[in-house]
């Protein structure tokens, strides 16, 4: 990992943002896939699944037998851990559920908000480098708690046309309706526009590679999406009191996701920075996913030395990290100074991996600095709100002239007339 100053890191990050736009070839490929799926439906999905995943399928939907067999194939310990995670994720997310409300705010005027779940949701679960049953739980459970009626999962099959038993088990535990064996931009297109087999949904959630992310961006507007997910990120704030081996292990826990992952440590201690640099170099050699983690650390790993705690807080807010671990001596005080972060972990016993699996809060978090304006996935993402307005005759008469005055000022005389015609009628 490189050791840099806060100022140097800011300059480096700004340069990277200027050149981070995806190549036009990615857009061209994604748009072609979307248009083809819209035109050809299932036929395009079968063809793309064979082309990109090497699986020749006869049917896209997971069969009942596959659902049943999966529960017997999953390691009982894994199933037990997934069950624990499910219960704790549900416990947290139930606290997020909003209720409709109605209130008389002025004499004769009742206003309110009607909260309604989205009807149909599609969830993308990545395949490829790893298997992610936790993604299933983190997306399906908030949707179920919100009251979504239909929840469909899309995920790429392996070359034999199979889906990992742990993915299927997680889907069954969480209560998903079905799984379709399709991934990539083609799966996003299918969810957005529908095919003979895959229903059109109202919202798409879940992470994926750059093709999936770009496809979500292109279909947004025709369907809702959760966010455009970038590479995974972790930022650790450490000082001389921080356990260096803990910090190194936590940085590498994100670096092993993929070569583009960002693992960053901010510290006010020169000596800690040097110790951490050595510790990371030693620990990365022990990882099964060494090549991926090492590539991430070499290219994007940074140890930032801040001149003081105020500068440390400033650079963390500049990064707006997906995951933030405050492992410094006064983590609670530092938390008060953090304005932008997807999830904040406090103290030495809060590794980011807890949040990925069993703590309860959602692990689908804003990346690439979007924590400046975005939030973790939650029950609120699967609900929508309608404004409710009711006036009595007396309340209407009291406010009619104000409405007509504003409408006429905007030269919308039809608006004014719709009010005045009632006023004349009641008079």
UniProtKB/TrEMBL annotation:
Superkingdom of the organism of origin: Bacteria
Matching CDD domains: Histidinol_dh
InterPro entries: Ald_DH/histidinol_DH, Histidinol_DH_CS, Histidinol_DH_monofunct, Hstdl_DH
EC category name: oxidoreductase
Keywords from the named record: Amino-acid biosynthesis, Histidine biosynthesis, Metal-binding, NAD, Oxidoreductase, Zinc
Binding site for NAD(+): 124, 186, 209
Catalysed transformations (reactions): L-histidinol + 2 NAD(+) + H2O = L-histidine + 2 NADH + 3 H(+)
GO cellular component: cytosol
Binding site for Zn(2+): 254, 257, 356, 415
Gene Ontology molecular function terms on file: histidinol dehydrogenase activity; NAD binding; zinc ion binding
Pathway given in the UniProt record: Amino-acid biosynthesis; L-histidine biosynthesis; L-histidine from 5-phospho-alpha-D-ribose 1-diphosphate: step 9/9
Biological process, per Gene Ontology: L-histidine biosynthetic process
EC code(s) of this entry: 1.1.1.23
Named cofactor requirement(s): Zn(2+)
Gene3D superfamilies in UniProt: 1.20.5.1300, Nitrogenase molybdenum iron protein domain
Active-site annotation: 322 (proton acceptor), 323 (proton acceptor)
Binding site for substrate: 232, 254, 257, 323, 356, 410, 415
Function: Catalyzes the sequential NAD-dependent oxidations of L-histidinol to L-histidinaldehyde and then to L-histidine.
Family membership: Belongs to the histidinol dehydrogenase family.
Record PANTHER family: HISTIDINE BIOSYNTHESIS TRIFUNCTIONAL PROTEIN, HISTIDINOL DEHYDROGENASE HDH
The name this protein goes by in its record: Histidinol dehydrogenase
Organism: Savagea serpentis
């Amino acid at each position: 990992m490189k050791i840099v100053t806060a100022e140097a890191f800011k300059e480096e990050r700004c340069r990277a943002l200027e050149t981070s736009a995806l190549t036009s070839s990615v857009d061209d490929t994604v748009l072609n896939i979307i248009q083809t799926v819209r035109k050809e439906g299932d036929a395009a999905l079968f063809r793309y699944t064979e082309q990109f995943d090497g699986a020749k399928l006869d049917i896209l939907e997971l069969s009942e037998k596959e659902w049943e067999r999966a529960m017997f194939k999953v390691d009982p310990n894994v199933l037990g851990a997934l069950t624990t995670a499910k219960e704790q994720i549900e416990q947290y997310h139930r606290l997020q559920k909003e209720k409709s409300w109605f209130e008389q705010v002025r004499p004769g005027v009742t206003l309110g908000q009607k909260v309604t779940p989205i009807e149909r949701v599609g969830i993308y679960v990545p395949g490829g480098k790893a298997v992610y049953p936790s993604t299933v739980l983190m997306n399906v459970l908030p949707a179920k708690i919100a009251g979504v009626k239909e929840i469909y999962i899309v995920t790429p099959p392996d070359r034999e046309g199979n889906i990992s038993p742990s993915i299927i088990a997680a889907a069954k535990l969480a209560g998903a309706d079905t799984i379709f064996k399709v991934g990539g931009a083609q799966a996003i297109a299918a969810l957005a526009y529908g095919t003979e087999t895959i229903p059109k949904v109202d919202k798409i959630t879940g992470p994926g590679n750059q093709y999936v992310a770009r496809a979500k961006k292109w279909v947004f507007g025709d369907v809702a999406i959760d966010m455009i997910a970038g590479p995974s990120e972790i930022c650790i704030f450490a000082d001389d009191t921080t356990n260096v081996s803990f910090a190194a292990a936590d940085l590498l826990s994100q670096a092993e996701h993929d070569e583009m992952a960002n693992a960053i440590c901010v510290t006010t201690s020169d000596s800690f920075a040097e110790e951490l640099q050595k510790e990371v170099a030693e620990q990365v050699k022990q990882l099964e996913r060494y090549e991926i983690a090492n590539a991430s650390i070499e290219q994007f790993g940074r140890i930032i030395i801040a001149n003081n705690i105020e500068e440390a807080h400033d650079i963390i807010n500049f990064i707006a990290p997906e995951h933030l671990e405050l492992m410094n001596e006064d983590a609670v005080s530092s938390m008060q100074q953090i304005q932008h972060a997807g999830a904040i972990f406090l103290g030495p016993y809060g590794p980011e991996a807890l949040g990925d699996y069993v703590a309860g809060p959602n692990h689908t978090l804003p990346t690439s600095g979007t924590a400046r304006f975005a939030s973790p996935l939650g029950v609120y993402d699967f609900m929508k709100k309608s404004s409710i307005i009711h006036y009595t005759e007396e309340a209407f008469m009291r406010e009619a002239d104000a409405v007509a005055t504003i409408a006429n000022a905007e030269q919308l005389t039809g608006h004014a007339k719709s009010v005045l015609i009632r006023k004349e009628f009641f008079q």
